[in-house]
Amino acid sequence: MRTALVIGTGLIGTSAALALAGRGVRVHLTDHDPAQARTAAALGAGTDEEPEDPVDLAVVAVPPAHVAAAVADAQRRGLARGYLDVASVKGGPRRELAALGGDPRRYLGTHPMAGRERSGPLAATADLFEGRPWVLTPTAETDTEVLNLALELVALCRAVPVVMDADAHDRAVALVSHTPQLLSSLVAARLEGADETAVRLCGQGIRDVTRIAASDPAMWVDILSANPGPVADVLAAVAADLDETVTALRALQSADEDDRKSGVSGIEDVLRRGNAGRERVPGKHGAAPATYESVTVMIGDQPGELARIFADAGRAGVNIEDVRIEHATGQQAGLIQLMVEPGAVPSLTAALRERGWSIRQ
């Protein structure tokens, strides 16, 4: 691949352009907002000048509702040898493109499973896709050259290709991406009118659950509008679980012993099912999740503290597998959990204590 055209210079389009440009591809940028394309160009993502000849690959990075029209228009103008999109919904755009008379042989629907709470070109990074799954949804009609160009794009972005059926993809992202966004927003919405004293008690748990609630509402309206059925199906199942959980909690308030036992059983069931589901989430390097133990350390909120504790762990010969930080309310300090292999806990604890760190049990 020598040349590419990125249509849509938001977070995903600009990040792909930065990755391609950084690996020697001449990238042309266009957007319905020329100022946004100029911003992406100024960041080093390519040039906002139109290509003189057809490029090797056109990457359509627009909201799902506009993918089919953008691909059909680009194909009519003969802008590229191959065309793909990077929207988070795949089945609908493909069917819409066919209805518009687009060429399915030169088009491939893809979806990089990467993103941030922020949007726009200024949020883009060349390494956004590194190590992340990038779904490809070829059909029997897909031209081999287009599939090869898509695979080259994934490789240049250092992502991991995953081949799926388009509709199976849409059902999957409804479960692992779209529904979690709504649930995060629903929990965060409970905080809007909450008493200030309650909000001050927020800890790491509520921060974890509501992190993605900071996402752009307009962007998510576009996404959910393109995949409403599968998302509604998952939410209906969640709603059924919620109804059963509410019933179980009410039973715990009962004076009747049998009702309370039923309530305990219901709550235990949903928690155990949650344990089982969580264990299926891929862990480090996409492997089955490993069992780590944590060493919890008090750390000051000042420059250099994180670097110092990581360096001390390194000197102890311990690999940090994961990190969690919980900030202390109203204090210039917090707790950092260093996730390590169980056998490394004693040596790491001893080494950190020797270097003056305050270990919390």
Automatic annotation (TrEMBL):
Keywords: Amino-acid biosynthesis, Aromatic amino acid biosynthesis, NAD, Oxidoreductase, Tyrosine biosynthesis. The keyword Oxidoreductase applies. Signal peptide: none annotated. It comes from the Bacteria. Pathway: Amino-acid biosynthesis; L-tyrosine biosynthesis; (4-hydroxyphenyl)pyruvate from prephenate (NAD(+) route): step 1/1. Residues 2-289 form the Prephenate/arogenate dehydrogenase domain. InterPro entries: 6-PGluconate_DH-like_C_sf, ACT-like_dom_sf, ACT_dom, NAD(P)-bd_dom_sf, PDH_C, PDH_N, Preph/Arog_dehydrog, Prephen_DH. Transmembrane segments: none annotated. It catalyses: prephenate + NAD(+) = 3-(4-hydroxyphenyl)pyruvate + CO2 + NADH. Its EC number is 1.3.1.12. PROSITE patterns: ACT, PDH_ADH. One of its GO terms (molecular function) is prephenate dehydrogenase (NAD+) activity. Residues 294-361 form the ACT domain. Belongs to the prephenate/arogenate dehydrogenase family. PANTHER family: PREPHENATE DEHYDROGENASE, PREPHENATE DEHYDROGENASE [NADP(+)]. This is Prephenate dehydrogenase. It comes from Streptomyces pathocidini.
